[in-house]
Amino acid sequence: MKPWNNRAWFLVLPMLLLVAFSAVIPLMTVVNYSVQDTFGDNKFFWAGVEWFRKTLHSERFVSALIRNLIFSGIILAVEVPLGVLIALRMPKKGIGVPICLVLMSLPLLIPFNVVGTIWQVFGRNDIGLLGGTLKSLGFDYNYVSNPVHAWVTLIVMDVWHWTSLVVLLCYAGLASIPDAYYQAAQIDGASGWARFRYIQLPKLSRVLTIAVLLRFMDSFMIYTEPFVVTGGGPGNATTFLSIDLVKMATREFNLGGAAAMSLIYFLIILLVSWVFYTVMTRHED
Amino acid sequence: MAAIKLDHIRHAYGPNPVSRDDYALKGVDHTFEDGSAYALLGPSGCGKTSLLNIISGLVRPSEGQLYFDAHDVTDLSTRERNIAQVFQFPVVYDTMTVAENLAFPLRNRRIAPAEIKTRVAEVLEMIGLTAMANKKARGLNADQKQKISLGRGLVRADVGAILFDEPLTVIDPHMKWVLRSQLKQLHRQFGHTMIYVTHDQTEALTFADKVMVMFDGEIVQIGDATQLFNEPAHTFVGYFIGSPGMNVLPVKVDGRRALIGQQAIALPSGVTIPAGKSIELGIRPEHLTLGRAGLPITVDRVEDVGRRRIVRARLEGLELAIAAPEDADIPADPHVAIDAGRIGVFADSWRLESRS
């Protein structure tokens, strides 16, 4: 019999250290800040759940949260159906396939702050192509001063940036449906709608679950693009949780409040993602 | 119900076919009679599925016309042709129940709900899934799913023909036998024109009135089991039907004798040998007798296949299968005797008819 001992556990050590330094320790630092009061000089006073209570009762937090929820809701309502529609219309074979795939991938390859800068300039009504065109057509478009215009600009930018992700996921899902299904649907005399409803949509449900989750999480955490384009304004019109959080932590140096807010923010994303996942996969098995 | 006429159908999947090899179907000219059951038998890639898809309208033939009775349907869509087709792998609509799956082809054709209900109940009974009518189709096993596919083919009372594309491949052996008998019974009962594609000769011969053997994009022979066995029109039929298949021996012709190396076999009388073609003799293993008389052979091995033995031997270096009784012993100096009346002569693979 081979001798055995517990030394194999040491093999886990590198990964354990990596996870500890990249996730566990930073997270616990935040937890540490969230339950204490600090006045610099490294002096800490126990505050209990006071920061959490304050955050949840602050109007500033609640209104940013509502803005975030509305933004994510609009993003999902636009990008998911649009993505499915584009994926259905994309060519299935021939030279069109690589061309479409490359065009679709392009926005995904651009760094977030560059996307923000592109739209910041694109939308300016003095030098931007979009803003200038709208202005010369007689629209009084100005995302710097008009909250509705700022929202529309951010939403159009996000749709431009991220719909491709839904398209690519759905396109892959559609490509995995065997021809026999379409042939059987023809034999059964199914209409185009019936074919979508009973063959394509059920086969897409898995990738759509992933698409909805990813788009929810990313849009709920959006920071860079609104920061570059609107800086959270006009007023607080586009101040999302992430923007407010950075403001609180680095400009106001309110570490306890920011830490409590981070944890609540994190738990909301976790909770909503779990709800989406549970609802969307409840039919399986 | 309808007679299906294929008028010089050719099909190529690539664009601009030039040579004969570019065609997956190399010219099919045949009429399927109304109400008959046919089997299309052939190896993978011989064009049988292409032919089926052309009949159902999933594929438009490159050349030729297709008629249902007197109507030219070549350019009609699948939906307008009113054909049922069952595929090799089960196709079910996952989100629907078993009963909804069966009702789907009828609903799409706007049949009255009351009639849908009775038809679905009948078909559920037929395929033995009545107890599962309200279960979601996604949870079923492959057998049950394929039964639903079959059921969707059978549910429409007015179909012109029902096409089966190797429908029992994924079914387990016992169920295969049951379903095949049920299909045969349905055919007797309702008299649909049925075309059944398979590469399994037993399946073909037990299902169909007429078996069409396809090879390399062509129908090489149409006949019943006896005809295919005794008078194969092509060496491929001889080889494909029977287990083991017919022995095909290339020979040199010298007057009325066929020469294999040092050995000579008398050619059947009444067969005229054309010049300039390669000549082969076809002899079934069942028509050879192992013993001490005849042509000398060497025995490679003996396979025991139950109630008889298959002797794998060589005649002048050519492989030869001989069917021998279960208790046959192998002589030390083995010879083979040929039943002279059963020798088929093939020129460039096609059978030469005897005029006597």
Keywords:
heterodimer, A: mainly alpha, MetI-like fold, 2% strand, B: 356 residues, Rossmann fold, OB fold (Dihydrolipoamide Acetyltransferase, E2P), 2 domains, six-stranded antiparallel beta sheet, 9 helices, 25% helix, 33% strand
Précis, in short:
The complex is a heterodimer of chains A (285) and B (356). By secondary structure, chain A is mainly alpha-helical.
Number of domains of chain A: 1
Mean pLDDT of chain A: 88
In terms of DSSP E residues, the strand content of chain B is: 25-35%
Distance between the termini of chain B: 41 Å
* Number of separate helices of chain B: 9
Oligomer: heterodimer
The SS-based structural class of chain B is: alpha+beta
For the terminal residues of chain A, how far apart are their CA atoms?
44 Å
Mean pLDDT of chain B: 86
Helical content class of chain A: over 70%
| Fraction of helical residues of chain B | 25-40%
Please write the CATH class name of chain A: Mainly Alpha
Strand order, biggest sheet of chain B? Answer: 6-7-8-3-9-10
| Structural class by sheet pairing and helices of chain A | mainly alpha
Neighbour order of strands in the largest sheet of chain A: 1-2
CATH superfamily caption of chain A? MetI-like
- The CATH class assignment of the largest domain in chain B is Alpha Beta
Q: What is the strand content of chain A?
A: under 5%
Describe what this molecule looks like in 3D:
Helices cover 71% and strands 2% of the residues of chain A. The longest helix of chain A has 31 residues, at 59-89. The mean pLDDT of chain A is 88. A two-stranded antiparallel sheet of chain A has the order 1-2. In chain A, helix 3 (59-89) packs across helix 7 (147-175), helix 7 packs across helix 9 (192-220) and helix 11 runs antiparallel to helix 12. Chain A has one domain (58-280): MetI-like (MetI-like fold, Orthogonal Bundle), CATH 1.10.3720.10. Chain A is built from 12 helices and 2 strands, in the order H-E-E-H-H-H-H-H-H-H-H-H-H-H. Chain B has helices at 48-56, 78-81, 98-108, 113-127, 142-154, 173-190, 201-207, 225-230, 235-240; strands spanning 4-11, 25-32, 37-41, 63-68, 71-72, 83-86, 161-165, 193-198, 210-215, 218-223, 247-254, 257-260, 263-266, 279-283, 288-291, 295-296, 298-304, 308-315, 318-325, 335-338, 344-347, 350-351. Chain B folds into 2 domains: 4-230, Rossmann fold (3-Layer(aba) Sandwich), CATH 3.40.50.300; 248-351, Nucleic acid-binding proteins (OB fold (Dihydrolipoamide Acetyltransferase, E2P), Beta Barrel). In chain B, the strands form 5 sheets. A 6-stranded mixed β-sheet of chain B has the order 6-7-8-3-9-10, sandwiched between helices. The longest helix of chain B is centred in the middle third of the chain and has 18 residues, at 173-190. Chain B is α+β, with helices and mostly antiparallel strands and 356 residues long. In chain B, helix 3 crosses helix 4 (113-127), helix 3 (98-108) runs parallel beside helix 5 and helix 4 crosses helix 5 (142-154). Chain B is built from 9 helices and 22 strands. The A-B interface holds A 178, 180-181, 183-184, 186-191, 194, 198-199, 202-203, 283, 285 and B 53, 56-58, 77-79, 83-85, 87-89, 91, 93-96, 104-105, 108-109, 139, 149, 152-153.
